[in-house]
Every structure is written in C-alpha cells, then in structure tokens.
C-alpha cells in the first residue's frame, strides 16, 4: 500500500503541452544534457586508454561512467516529456492553497474525467473541505515543513522495444504470421527447346496467440486520494507505464520476467530466437576482432537498418577497447537521434541483456524491425480501478493489464545475430 507520505506537498509542474517557449527550453535542456554526458564519457575513455592506468584513475573512470548513466536517465525523461504520452501524464493544475481541490475549469474534458475516475471512481462534486484548526492549541495555523518533490527510484530498461516491429491488434485472437525464403533461387539458361522445372518459394507460417499479462496491484486509501497534493492521477499511470515497459522488455529479451523462472507461452526470447553470428576469443572480454566478426556475420541486406544492442555495463566495458591502430572502438556522439555508435551503427541499450560472461550473449546486431514482431492488443496497457474490493478498509486498488505476443521473424537469412562469449 502506498504510504501517507504523499499527503501534504505540491508536485513540481511538468510543463504545458503546446507551449512554444517550453518546447525551446526542453530542446536546450536536452542539448546541454547530451553535451555533458558526452564530455563525461570522453573523459572516462581518455583515462582507461592511457598506457599506464592507476587504480585511482580506474575508480575515477567508473564514477564518470556512473554520472553519465544518471544523465542518460534524465535525457530519456526529457524526451518522454515530449512524446505522444505527454498528454496522458500532463500535470494537473491545482488551486492555491488547494487542500486536494482540483482546478477543473482549466482541464480538458478527458483529463478532468480521468482525474475524477482516479480519485472518486465516478464524477463527484462532494470534495472534502477542512476547518481552519483541528485542535485547541492554535498549532494548526503553523504550516508543516514539506519537501514538495516526490523522490522516485529509477531503473532504466533501454529503448529496444522502440526498435521492434510493433503490430497493434484490435483483439487477441490467434494470428497467422507467414514467412517466405526464396534467396537460393536465381536464373537458369534457357536452352531452346527445353522445359523449365518448377521451383516454388519456401513458405512457412506460425500461429501467434497472446499472453495475458498484469502488473502487481497498488492500493491507496480514500483519504490519500482526496488529500494528496501530488498528482496521483498522473503518478499512478506513470508507475504502471514503467512497470509495463520494464516487464515487456524483460519478456522480449529473455522470454520471462526478470528474476522469475516463469516463461511466457507466446513471447519468444530475442536471444534464443536469434542466430550465433560470432564467438568471442575471451570468456570475460570483448575485443575489436569480436565486433568485426559479428558485423561481418550479418547479411548486408540487413546492415542498412542494423543496430547494436547491449546493456550499459557492456557499453562501459567497450570504452577501453581500441582497433588495431589504437583508435577507440566506441564513439560517443551527442546527436539528436543517436547517443553512441559502433562501426557507424547506432547502439541501443537493452538492460535485460546479460553482462559479459562465459557462454552469455552480451551483444546483438541486426535489423530488429525485420527480425522481431511484437504484437500488442489495443489499447496496450489498461488500468482498472477496484472500487469495492477493499472498501472495508477504505482503500482503492489499481491494477494494470495487457495482452501481448512476440516472435523472432527469421525466414532463413538471420536478420539478428548474437555475439556469444567463449565458454569457460
């Protein structure tokens, strides 16, 4: 259950959609964050590429990398503010001093309806008003000190979901996915008169059903819903949205929840479904030749849209890797669409890929839109409000649920390849 710590403060405004000045400010902020992050990575790289590196310099490089990860999360947060989800999580304006009263006049009908649903389960004008004092000492007139920002623990999941071929579905009925492989068929010499043999393309199909998935529940007291100055009707969907993307990324990557032996029935692991492209020379490190072997194992037909995928620990390990001429393999780039590149291809984080270890797949390379189909039943993540189940304790439950399926779409020429670490 959420604690009473949400009561008594005011949330920091998240910005108003459609505001030109706010948009310019966000762009400036993103550019500054990208520049700072690139500077940190370059400093860390310069430390580990020295001919003689001390323990203190290694520790300093790790601190710089850790600081860059914090900036990476801030950049993702700023980008998400400008995404299509901004309208859902937009800050709800509040009256001064408020006491939990919402300024409904300044809200759109959709936002006002959602706010009423989260707080009361239906439209309600019977909001609570408090007397000026709750005791005879007069102490109620002295405000209590309160830090008006809800401090949230963060954990990145990476952006690999955005790189997949996402197929929204109107329902969860089984869907046939057809595959064709005709790459071995070419031209033949026509020796007149002659009969040409019939060679059909190799066709196959897979039936893709959906798994029903749900988040764990959040319970909030009725009093907290009424009194909290924090934007609960934005905060609760935001929590469920992060659970959704963390869980979906874990399922797509490993076929199971992080840390759970339970395996999804209809969401295939992108690791086990991909093909081994190269095996590293070392069980505990990745060298320049390993990356070039992986790059060369992908058919050129997929290279144009190919990306590298790895977790942040693997990316940090590659900072100190150089090619045969001593040039850094890993190049930070503060561009609008790409933070990092390897061999000219974008690097997209997937925090649920394994770290570098014997027999593990620490890096993947390929065209992920061609290589993986993610099916989501509309509307994606849905949130249900449990009005009566916990009413004997004056609590309201919230639960997120969705239906999804995933398939590695490899018709035979392997659009995604793995770098497998050498076995110990």
Helicity, as a percent range: 25-40%
Regions with little confidence, pLDDT below 50 for 5+ residues = 1-20, 84-104, 123-142, 144-148
Q: Tell me the span between the first and last alpha carbons.
A: 45 Å
> Looking at the structure, what is the overall shape?
flat
Share of residues in strands: 15-25%
Q: Report the sheet with the most strands, covering strand number, pairing sense and barrel closure.
A: 7 strands, mixed
Number of helices: 10
Tell me, rounded to a whole number, the average pLDDT: 76
> How large is the radius of gyration?
26 Å
| Main sheet strand line-up | 6-15-11-7-10-9-8
Give the strand tally.
Answer: 15
Q: Would you tell me the structural class of the helices and strands?
A: alpha+beta
Which features does this protein show?
single chain, 424 residues, alpha+beta, seven-stranded mixed beta sheet, six-stranded mixed beta sheet, 10 helices, flat, disordered N terminus
Structure description:
A hairpin with a 7-residue loop joins β8 (330-332) and β9. The chain has 424 residues and is of the alpha+beta class. The strands form three sheets. A seven-stranded mixed beta sheet has the order 6-15-11-7-10-9-8. Strands 1, 4, 5, 12, 13 and 14 form a six-stranded mixed beta sheet that branches. The chain contains ten helices and 15 strands. It is flat and about 85 Å long.
Describe this structure in a few short sentences.
The chain is an alpha+beta fold and 424 residues long. It has ten helices and 15 strands.
Secondary structure blueprint with pairings:
Blueprint: H1 20-48, H2 55-81, H3 109-120, E1 165-169, E2 175-181, E3 202-208, E4 211-214, E5 218-221, H4 222-227, H5 232-254, H6 270-273, E6 275-279, H7 288-297, H8 300-303, E7 307-310, H9 312-317, E8 330-332, E9 340-342, E10 345-349, E11 361-366, H10 368-371, E12 372-377, E13 382-386, E14 395-408, E15 416-420
Parallel strand pairs: 1-12, 6-15, 7-10
Antiparallel strand pairs: 2-3, 4-14, 5-14, 7-11, 8-9, 9-10, 11-15, 12-14, 13-14
Helix pairs in contact: 1-2
